[in-house]
Design a protein that fits this description.
single chain; alpha/beta; Aspartate Aminotransferase, domain 1; Aspartate Aminotransferase, domain 2; 2 domains; 7-stranded mixed sheet; 4-stranded mixed sheet; 15 helices; 14 strands; 15% strand
Length: 418
């Protein structure tokens, strides 16, 4: 008989297998200091392109003041208990009402976490008679929620309406026999590629097929649309998107999430989402802080304008320099290069130690073998000088990559570990 601890220790997983070499540098790095365009990594200041602080709200003075005052007034304990039993409050309901108005839905339910929220929404909505149809490049929270589904689930090729329709046809045949229903799940913005989900195209398929649409718009909320409400506003299809989900971890620079939609459906979720029924209510400072963040998103459009000034400068500058950014139409800026995983290691070290630039690097299996992705997240805290510096550095590291510098066993000027 195997020992469960021995089994997991002997198989640490795809990423965990490299933890002895990677921990503290490539994985679980520590960025210190004020959350901004420049932070300290291992004792030295770096230009950081890895934080989803899109609108710069993490250290906005009005946000910091609201957070501090709420923490002083309420502490982190209030309200005590789950929302359904003893943890409800007027600010919680106010935040739900304001979010519903902002994304133009009838009602809204406040959630403690984004990842957990998506998994729990899926669990609450579908039973074994139902069928889920979802984009193959969906975020892990969607994939894990789908895996827990006891019924059928069909993937469609990324943003491929023809493939989506084929899966809807399969799903329709099944539910006609089972008496179930169809839930289609996709994203407003895909966090790796930066692609917008084809929400408008999928909604058009409602004319031929009977399904409901659940959209995770974590990266779209605050960054897209005339008012910043998200991808559906950007594509002018708010009405056709049945459930609008977003986390506070991106543009809101905090913790929490929400789901908005028809009043009766939100009421159902409020009374049936196990992750919320059996969890302590979101602490008051986070709720009050979210109200202030939402106020700033609504009343200070210059934050989004500054963000897009940086996005446009960065993306146009990289493309002009010959870099492949894929098909991004959002703030997410993937820079695609040809290379191996060992080359990715050396390239990342060079960027961090010799150029003082910190960004995320993505390799197989997230991207195909032979491809490296440098993933940049522009924010309203970045400057045009940051953009110029980064483009110049990327031109140099690409020349090194193409000439084989990173295929050598080691690089000569790495900073020693601290």
């Amino acid at each position: 008989m195997a020992d469960i601890f021995e089994k997991v220790v002997n198989n640490m997983g795809h990423i965990g297998a490299h933890q002895k070499m990677a921990h503290g540098y490539f994985t679980f790095p520590k960025l210190e200091g004020e959350i901004s365009n420049k932070m300290v990594f291992r004792g030295r200041e770096k230009l950081v392109w890895s934080l989803n602080n899109y609108l710069g709200l993490a250290n906005h003075p009005e946000v910091r003041k609201a957070d501090a005052e709420a923490a002083g007034q309420y502490g982190m304990g209030l309200p005590m208990g789950a929302r359904m039993m003893s943890g409800n409050s007027n600010p919680h309901e106010q935040l739900e009402s304001e979010l519903a108005d902002f994304v133009q839905k009838e009602d809204c339910f406040l959630l403690n976490f984004g990842y957990q929220g998506v998994v729990s929404i899926i669990d609450a909505l579908v039973d074994r008679h139902d069928v889920i149809v979802y984009d193959v490049e969906s975020h892990a929270c969607i994939v894990d929620g789908v895996r827990l589904h006891a019924g059928h689930r069909f993937q469609f090729k990324h943003n491929d309406l023809e493939s989506c329709e084929k899966q809807l046809q399969r799903a329709t045949r099944l539910v006609e026999k089972s008496g179930g229903a169809i839930l289609l799940i996709t994203e407003g913005v895909f966090g790796m590629s930066g692609n917008q989900g084809d929400l408008k195209g999928i909604i058009e398929l409602k004319k031929k097929y009977n399904f409901r649409m659940f959209v995770d718009d974590a990266h779209g909320f605050g960054t897209l649309g005339k008012t910043g409400s998200g991808t559906a506003e950007e594509q002018d299809c708010i009405e056709g998107m049945d459930l609008h989900f977003s986390t506070f971890a991106k543009s809101m620079a905090s913790i929490g999430a929400f789901v908005a939609g028809p009043k009766e459906v939100i009421t159902f979720l409020r009374y049936n989402m196990r992750s919320q029924i059996y969890a302590k209510s979101l602490p008051m400072p986070l709720v009050v802080g979210a109200l202030k963040r939402l106020e700033l998103i609504r009343t200070q459009p210059e934050l989004k304008e500054k963000l897009w000034t940086i996005v446009n400068a960065l993306q146009s500058g990289l493309r002009k320099a010959g870099f492949d950014l894929g098909t991004t139409k959002t703030c997410v800026t993937p820079v695609l290069l040809n290379g191996t995983i060992p080359e990715a290691t050396h390239l990342t070290l060079d960027l961090r130690e010799n150029y003082d630039i910190f960004c995320s690097i993505v390799t197989y299996p997230v991207v195909p073998k032979g491809i490296l992705m440098l993933r940049l997240i522009p924010t309203a805290t970045h400057t045009l000088e940051d953009v110029d510096r980064t483009i110049k550095a990327f031109i140099e590291i690409k020349e090194k990559l193409d000439s084989g510098v990173y295929s050598k066993s080691e690089l000569p000027t790495m900073q020693p570990a601290i």
